[in-house]
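Colleagues,

For the teaching module next term, I've prepared a clean inverse folding example: a structure given as tokens, and then the sequence designed for it. I'd like students to try predicting residues themselves before seeing the answer, so please don't circulate the second half yet.
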């Protein structure tokens, strides 16, 4: 069962760079995918994208992703759209091809199934021609890599219903994306028109011998690009105006709009000479790196930016934070029945390479991360959900970690948790981290948590429902022997 209500299976038309990215985005959110692509190499290409997406997603979100959906390749557009709740088209940018695919797929999909098109510039009003129930087509224009980039532009055509746009927003939001709902249909939408302006100017700089491809990229990635990733253009200029805001900025710099700083209204002829120059400079810039290595580098940079922004709850970081809260809620809803007569097996993880330190084994902080994740699972079990987090939570106030055996990259770990004691405000638990291959104990951790009213910023009694769930668990765990390391302190002999 999909963790996203009303979305268990989707149909994808096209498995190229964008279609493969969509497949990863859906599959890693636990949604099954039926994909149509006539390219015999599509399964291999999508599998490679999935490998990068799994790697990136495991680094992006701290919460546990749901069980991965299943991917099935089908022989026709009609098969891709049969029995699904949503369809995403990502064929090459040829109007006739997109119209043909949408016409055929729309004959097989139920009338309530929304169709999203990944087109980067074609008008949805034209793509609707010949579709059955054309009111359910909307542009859902993503950005590469689709499995990481949060932006998706939503643009309806002349026949698109508001209910279609609402459903598209709902689906894309559930996938951890930021839908940008456009009020008017326009060629290229918003983001591509802005990027196109910069691209045209870059072409002139290369054409006129003013800057190389690498110098142009350096001008962006070491300068305004860092700001664009979280503030965009308009807010930056407004801030540049100081206390007087945009009006002062325009008074200061508005006249520059008449200066010959740009050739925006013109574009150099794409001669073979210019094309050769661009290709040569781009090849030199990439060096010996393969496309997959460059993609992995790109993904790591995006992850670093988004996780950094998550810490301040702004821009793409705010979207990521909201997505992790959704994952927290879904995981809580999916908790399976547990054997209360033994320590609860609540969390599993495979040690990734980035958890390993210079000594070749898992870093100390990662053990705390594993035990913290297990603790979060316990909180979900007793009823701490997304709604509860709006006013209260448990905060860790004291911890003691004891290290046993080493854990290496690739080791599969699992954590068990025992409730030692609790009262209205406190929760005392003991976690044991095992290596799955041989059940060796690699670490233990003892945590004391305090229930807090987050609005008041002070300790408070947990809700009666949570206390009742803890009491039920305590009735079983009080019969278990006290763990050998419980109550230890730093420097105490092992005995």
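(Answer key — instructors only)
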């Amino acid at each position: 069962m999909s963790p996203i209500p009303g979305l268990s299976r989707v149909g994808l038309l096209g498995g190229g760079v964008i279609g493969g990215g969509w497949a990863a985005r859906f599959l890693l959110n636990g949604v099954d995918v039926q994909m149509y692509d006539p390219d015999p190499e599509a399964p291999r290409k999508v599998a490679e994208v999935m490998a990068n997406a799994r790697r990136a997603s495991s680094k992006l979100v701290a919460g546990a992703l749901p069980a991965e959906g299943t991917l099935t390749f089908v022989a026709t557009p009609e098969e891709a759209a049969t029995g699904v709740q949503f369809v995403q088209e990502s064929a090459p940018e040829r109007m006739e091809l997109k119209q043909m695919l949408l016409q055929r797929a729309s004959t097989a999909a139920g009338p309530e199934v929304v169709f999203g098109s990944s087109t980067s510039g074609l008008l949805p009003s034209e793509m609707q021609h010949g579709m059955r129930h054309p009111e359910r087509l909307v542009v859902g224009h993503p950005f590469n890599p689709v499995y990481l980039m949060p932006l998706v532009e939503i643009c309806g055509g002349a026949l698109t219903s508001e209910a279609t746009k609402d459903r598209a927003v709902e689906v894309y939001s559930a996938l951890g994306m930021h839908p940008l709902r456009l009020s008017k249909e326009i060629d290229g939408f918003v983001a591509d028109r802005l990027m196109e302006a910069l691209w045209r100017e870059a072409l002139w700089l290369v054409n006129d011998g003013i800057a190389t491809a690498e110098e142009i990229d350096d001008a962006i990635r070491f300068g305004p690009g860092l700001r664009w990733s979280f503030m965009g253009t308009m807010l930056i200029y407004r801030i540049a105006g100081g206390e007087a805001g945009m009006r002062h900025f325009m008074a200061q710099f508005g006249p520059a709009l008449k200066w010959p700083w740009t050739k925006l209204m013109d574009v150099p002829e794409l001669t073979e000479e210019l094309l050769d120059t661009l290709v040569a400079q781009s090849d030199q810039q990439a060096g010996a790196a393969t496309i997959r290595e460059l993609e992995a580098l790109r993904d790591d940079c995006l992850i670093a930016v988004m996780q950094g922004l998550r810490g301040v709850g702004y821009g793409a970081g705010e979207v990521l934070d909201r997505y992790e809260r959704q994952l927290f809620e879904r995981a809580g809803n999916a908790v399976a029945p547990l054997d209360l007569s033994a320590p609860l097996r609540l969390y599993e993880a495979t040690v990734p390479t980035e958890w390993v330190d210079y000594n070749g084994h898992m870093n100390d902080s990662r053990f705390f991360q594993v035990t913290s994740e297990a603790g979060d699972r316990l909180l979900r079990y007793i009823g701490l959900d997304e709604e509860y987090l709006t006013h209260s939570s448990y905060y860790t106030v004291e911890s003691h970690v004891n290290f046993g055996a080493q854990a290496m990259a690739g080791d599969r770990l699992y954590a068990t948790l025992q409730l030692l004691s609790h009262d209205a405000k406190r929760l005392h638990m003991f976690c044991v981290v095992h290596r799955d291959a041989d059940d060796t104990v690699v670490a233990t951790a003892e945590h004391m948590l305090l229930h807090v009213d987050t609005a008041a910023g002070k300790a408070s009694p947990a809700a009666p429902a949570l206390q009742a769930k803890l009491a039920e668990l305590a009735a079983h765990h009080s019969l278990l022997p006290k763990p050998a390391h419980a109550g230890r302190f730093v420097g105490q002999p092992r005995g």
